[in-house]
Amino acid sequence: MDQLKRMRAGVVTTAALFIGAGIALLSDLNGWWDIPGGVWRWWPLLPLALGIEIILTQLIHGRQAVVILDGLSLALVVVLAGASIMYQAGGSALHMSGTVEHRLTVTETLTSLGSVQKVRLVNPLGTTEVKPSEDGAVSITAEMLGRGNGENEARMRAEEMTLQITNGELLTIQVMPEDRRNQICHLVVAVPAELPLEVENEFGGVEVRDRQANLLVKNSLGSTQVHNIEGDVQLENEMGSVYVEEVAGNVTIQNSHGRVTVSDISDELNITNSFGAVEIDSVGGVATVRNQNGTIIADGIQQGGTLATTFAGIKASEVGDSVNCRSQNGSIELHDVAGDI
Description:
A twelve-stranded mixed β-sheet has the order 3-6-9-5-11-13-15-17-19-21-23-25. An eleven-stranded mixed β-sheet has the order 7-8-4-10-12-14-16-18-20-22-24, with no helix packed on it. The protein has a two-stranded parallel sheet with strand order 1-2. The protein is built from four helices and 25 strands. It is an alpha/beta fold. Helix 1 runs antiparallel to helix 2.
């Protein structure tokens, strides 16, 4: 009997994965298009493609061959699967482990604000939306979502979450979860527009609009949107996009792993970003943008500024003063610059 050939499968799939992932990430970072759902959502394509390659290899070589899975391919499957499991354990709203959901809505209204000088919102597991109060009170609506293997367990998870309210000069409203994997809170708060606001959020998006005071937002694993603010805005965001428009004040943004889009800023703009494109339009003051591994597109910077990035290009137009542009391993394209370059 002839000795069977040992054929290795997985090399083609692994190479295609690296090429496809590289192209997708490069496109996402440079703002050409976004990866739907993020990279982790698509990892099951690897074992699927490996299975197809194993079948095709066996069909091509027939019974005279025994197919062996490439070690690097197997290691990639294990690593991606483990990373996905860890992401789920972190408490993502889209990856809770139970099968039955129970929703519980909690409402609170604070009419006597007394000596309150600032409002602080803390939501460690979900989304936070802030809108202006119409009656001068602070109104809270918290949708507690619990998930379990049955209705009773899901209800218990939802009821375990509580709101902790601490009154004083600093009014603090905090969501208190018990099980980060099986609980989430969608928090909506109406706050008087003239009170300064701080928001701390994780595992979900933040949206703040129509305020007449300074704003500070710290968010991770979610997007941040800010609209129509009369005051200074400071944003610290990770693993998500940032969108800011119509701010009568200074804007400072520190972000990573996400696109930053800013428009209609009256005063100075300072952006630090990495692994995501930055696009700005209509800035009344000096604009300073420091990016890494992402393009910069700037239009309508009235007082000039500094634009710097790496491994990507810079495009700027209608700059009212001098602009300093630096791009490492990327192109620079400038139009209608009134000052020095």
